[in-house]
Design goal:
By secondary structure, this protein is of the alpha/beta class. The protein has one domain (7-163): 3-Layer(aba) Sandwich (Rossmann fold). The protein is 31% helix and 22% strand. The chain has 5 helices and 6 strands, in the order βαβαβαβαβαβ. Strands 3-2-1-4-5-6 form a 6-stranded parallel β-sheet.
């Protein structure tokens, strides 16, 4: 029997998203990386022509700004993916997961209610089982937004895919 590849996706744990509601996450996530064969970390960047600037008039996370820097040290084996939208899950990312034998991926990061949810749902719809570690997620909008995100995820991808700890 072939061993399944154990994989972690860290979503947008960046300096610009760290506040009192998320300050506890970087050190926990940094330590969690050691438990995984494959680690991916996303880094959100908001370029001048983005939909966030056009439709929401939201100008944070400009390229090269301090806000975009990761708030944790990625493991040596981690792959950092820069993204300009909510999710990194596209055909190329899914092909790389399948090529590595990934059938299930653990997610953690910021914001539970937005980018973590979008990534988890995108993986779910592409047939890759997302496991969201609620204890390693948070929202810079606060605890209530995180809680709403967890409840939404349970409805979207099923309660069995949302866990507190392993």
């Amino acid at each position: 029997m072939t061993k399944k590849t154990n994989c972690l996706l860290i979503v947008d744990v960046q300096k610009g998203f760290i506040n009192d509601a998320t300050r506890h996450l970087p050190s926990l996530i940094e330590a969690a990386q050691a438990d995984f064969d494959l680690v991916f970390a996303t880094r959100f960047v908001n370029p001048d022509a983005s939909v966030f600037r056009r439709y929401m008039n939201w100008g944070r996370f400009a390229p090269e700004s301090a806000e975009t820097e990761l708030a944790f040290a990625p493991a040596l084996h981690a792959v950092v993916i820069e993204k300009t939208i909510y999710s990194c899950v596209d055909d190329g990312f899914c092909r790389s997961l399948r090529a590595a034998g990934v059938e299930e991926i653990t997610l953690c990061g910021i914001d539970t209610d937005i980018c973590v949810t979008k990534c988890a749902v995108d993986l779910f719809e592409r047939g890759i089982r997302p496991i969201v570690r609620a204890d390693l997620c948070g929202s810079h909008a606060g605890a209530a937004a995180h809680k709403r995100g967890i409840e939404t995820l349970k409805r979207f991808i099923g309660e069995g895919q949302v866990v507190q700890k392993f």
